Amino acid sequence: xxxxxxxxxxxxxxxxxxxxxxxxxxxxxxxxxxxxxxxxxxxxxxxxxxxxxxxxxxxxxxxxxxxxxxxxxxxxxxxxxxxxxxxxxxxxxxxxxxxxxxxxxx
Amino acid sequence: xxxxxxxxxxxxxxxxxxxxxxxxxxxxxxxxxxxxxxxxxxxxxxxxxxxxxxxxxxxxxxxxxxxxxxxxxxxxxxxxxxxxxxxxxxxxxxxxxxxxxxxxxxxxxxxxxxxxxxxxxxxxxxxxxxxxxxxxxxxxxxxxxx
Lengths: 106, 146
Hints:
The structure holds two protein chains of two kinds.
Chain A: H1 2-20, H2 45-57, H3 62-70, H4 72-105
Chain B: H1 8-30, H2 39-56, H3 59-65, H4 71-91, H5 109-139
């Protein structure tokens, strides 16, 4: 079992290294992620964001404009996820505390 | 656990440190337009300044700063600020969360977007701060001293 684990780790490392050897160089202009048109022939929105983010919102930080304006419904979802997590913790821990109190009384 | 009292040195140290962390949290929220940051990160820093006092002293002293029963309403208020901004823009004739239509007079469209982003970041910061405080308060309920 120990050797099987080791063998699996080595095999997985080899697969990752093989995949990493095929990655494009960082920052090269001919990469697909830096093109204005995607593989299917449609225009890429990132191009518009970089060119027009300051003119649209007068905000130098592009990330803030994307998260707060262009993708604001996604950010609303993130906020609701955090709110729901807080409510669930509140409800779960409050109930468990009451049960423990009853156990201590008996 | 009943007769323990908070150490005055630790309490003084945290009382000295907490406002600076809080100021830095507000800086991260309000300066998110120009540097890395925003509502989530700034809200976490604000929660850190509240939790520092809560860890160093008991709930009695910490409730002078932020009362634990206020956490859930404030978290809901943060969501309502965000959602209400989007709904207000939709009522004024635009799309949902289209800050261009917000009824603030005397501003052009790009500046309206600037202020709209700031309003929603404040809502996010309020929710993150109160939810993190709420999780800590519920976890230590009945276990802490003072």
